[in-house]
Design a protein that fits this description.
Length: 255
C-alpha cells in the first residue's frame, strides 16, 4: 500500500478511474499504484504528481533508488505490470523462484564486488513480492532438470533448500512449475531461456538473455516465434504433479 499516494488522491478528490483517464492508463493499473505500491513509469509519475499537486519523490521516494541494473529496469517494470509470465530456463532457476542464497551464488559469478552483489540480490528478492500480491500475475515456469541438478555454492544444502523453495512456490495459486526431464532428447529449449509477459491491455513482450544484457521486444514476429517455441517446450515437460514430485526427489538427493 502506498499511503502517500492514497492520501494525496483523497485530498485532490481523485480516484483510480479519474487518474487513469487523465494519464491514459488502465484503471486497474492506476489502482495498483495505491493498493500494491507499484511505482509508475517515469512519464506517468510526472503526470500523476502534477495532477495531485505533489513532488514525485514525495509520492515515490524509492523511484530513484532502484537496485536493478539500469539495462534491466525496463523489464523489471514490465514484470510488475504483467498479468501473466511464461518463463523457460535451461541452466538456472528462474529469478522469481530463487532463494537468497542461490541468487547470491549465481550473481557473484559476474562480479567480485560484495556491495554490488548485495544490491543485485536485494533487487531480485524484492521482485519476488509480486507472487504474494492480492492479485498476483500467473507465473508458469518451465525448468530443465539440469538446472536443479547443477550444484551452486559449496555444498548440497544450498541446492536442497532451493529445490524445496521451488516446491513451496509451486503450492501458491499463482505459480505453475513444470520440469523437462534430464533424459529428454535434444529439444527447442536448448536454444536458450526466454520469458513471455502479457500486460493488462493484452500487449505481449518478450525477454531473452544474452551474455551482456537482455533483449526485450514486443515485435509481433519475434513474439509469435517464441510462442511457438514455448508450446513445443511445454510439450516436452512433465505435468504439474509429476514435476512437483521430481523437484522434491531432486531435493532429497542434495546432502
Amino acid at each position: 500500500m502506498n499511503h502517500a499516494v492514497k492520501v494525496a488522491m483523497l485530498e485532490a478528490g481523485e480516484t483510480a478511474e479519474s487518474l487513469a483517464a487523465q494519464v491514459d492508463v488502465d484503471p486497474k493499473t492506476a489502482a495498483r499504484w495505491v493498493s500494491h505500491g507499484r511505482i509508475p513509469r517515469a512519464r506517468h509519475r510526472v503526470r500523476v504528481a502534477a495532477i495531485l499537486g505533489r513532488d514525485v519523490l514525495d509520492l515515490w521516494p524509492d523511484a530513484l533508488k532502484r537496485r536493478e541494473p539500469a539495462w534491466f529496469r525496463r523489464w523489471a517494470d514490465i514484470e510488475r505490470e504483467a498479468v501473466e509470465l511464461r518463463w523457460f530456463e535451461l541452466a538456472w532457476v528462474p529469478g522469481l523462484l530463487q532463494t537468497e542464497a542461490y541468487a547470491r551464488a549465481t550473481l557473484a559469478l559476474a562480479t567480485p564486488a560484495t556491495d554490488e552483489v548485495d544490491e543485485l540480490v536485494t533487487a531480485r528478492m524484492q521482485r519476488q513480492a509480486i507472487l504474494h500480491w492480492p492479485q498476483p500475475p500467473l507465473v508458469v515456469a518451465v525448468i530443465d532438470e539440469a538446472a536443479l541438478r547443477r550444484r551452486a555454492g559449496r555444498d548440497g544444502k544450498l541446492m536442497r533448500e532451493q529445490c524445496e523453495h521451488i516446491a513451496a512456490c509451486a503450492e501458491l495459486p499463482c505459480v505453475q512449475v513444470h520440469v523437462v526431464p534430464l533424459d529428454t532428447p535434444i529439444y527447442l529449449g536448448m536454444g536458450g531461456p526466454f520469458i513471455l509477459a502479457e500486460l493488462p491491455d493484452g500487449t505481449r513482450v518478450a525477454h531473452q538473455d544474452s551474455p551482456a544484457r537482455a533483449h526485450i521486444t514486443d515485435d509481433a514476429t519475434e513474439i509469435a516465434s517464441l510462442e511457438r517455441r514455448w508450446a513445443r517446450i511445454v510439450g516436452e515437460a512433465l505435468p504439474r504433479a509429476q514435476s512437483l514430485d521430481l523437484v522434491r526427489k531432486v531435493a532429497a538427493t542434495w546432502t
